């Protein structure tokens, strides 16, 4: 028989470790987020359905996005044991300049729609943690305002080439004048992909006050209050638009652009040139031969061509074909720091993350972006330690096996 006794206070006291209350509701929400998936759940609750779906969704049946995420989820890590990993160096270089982490913040359109703090908040977080941030042509904060918000950040400008080439030239000149380091040309949008969530939601920029959105406003009053009481939601690089995203893209973007136009772009931009949207080995070679300083293996987050190649699957072949001739970045499907480590091991110099920080922005503004970055950087470091890699340069294909 077990002998029992009443516990003494001296025995109970060490067990009573009440956490101090977190009074700020935003900080309280974000403290509960341990993963990017947690931030996504918070973002979904705090953001109107059409806005969340614009961020979260992909093209047509969303097969491309699911395949990309599935490949990351099903890969196998192969750790090497008995290494001193007490000190791990996550730093790398991108375009020859230092970056504290092997990832950058990707360009995303209409960012102030997700949260009124918008692109400036993202740039400030990038500045603090020491990684590049790319401002989109379709951003909702001007080139000059982003430069002022984060003067010491490494800033890149993402360019879509419009039918009106003079407009593109003006944007490039403004980016150069504002001190942007690199130009990122996106080449996988000759026409808009069929984003069916947006079509079903009747999504416009800015959101229209229909009976449906008025009802939604009652469920997300804080978001609507911020939208209606802050600077009007406008494009940073063009006049306002009242149609759908697809209609806007098809009106503005130039489907006649070819590889020969890279020479035109080089004639108006003297800095590093990144080409984003590479989906075959042959195209990787073509743009490098045409003078690209870096490429991004990307299917646009699954938002253009459904059933497109999965960038992570393509990565080893591109890395073998280019043999260090240019830097290789990768996006699409990245939801954790472990994904970033896997991509680096398989040949990427760095990754671009987009949805991950947007979920944080929707969940808690600039603090939410910072929380997303904290989650990713913690996961990068921990995964490297568990793999036995003391620096990102030690990561190699032996650490990962693809299914």
TrEMBL record:
Where's the FMN hydroxy acid dehydrogenase domain? 28-403
- The UniProt transmembrane annotation reads none
Give the family this protein belongs to, as stated in its UniProt record: Belongs to the FMN-dependent alpha-hydroxy acid dehydrogenase family.
- Write the record's keywords in alphabetical order, separated by commas: Flavoprotein, FMN, Oxidoreductase
Name the residues annotated as catalytic in the UniProt entry.
300
Q: What cofactor does this one take?
A: FMN
* Binding, FMN: 107-109, 136, 158, 186, 276, 298, 354-355
Q: Which organism is it from?
A: Jiangella anatolica
This protein's source sits in the domain of life called Bacteria
| SUPFAM superfamilies, A to Z | FMN-linked oxidoreductases
Name recorded for this polypeptide? Alpha-hydroxy-acid oxidizing enzyme
The record's section on PANTHER family has:
2-HYDROXYACID OXIDASE 1, S -2-HYDROXY-ACID OXIDASE-RELATED
Q: Where does glyoxylate bind?
A: 54, 160, 195, 300, 303
User: What Gene Ontology terms describe what this protein does at the molecular function level?
Assistant: FMN binding; oxidoreductase activity, acting on CH-OH group of donors
Checking Gene3D superfamilies in the record gives:
Aldolase class I (3.20.20.70)
Q: Does the keyword Flavoprotein apply?
A: yes
Entry-linked InterPro entries: Aldolase_TIM, Alpha-hydoxy_acid_DH_FMN, FMN-dep_DH, FMN_HAD, FMN_hydac_DH_AS
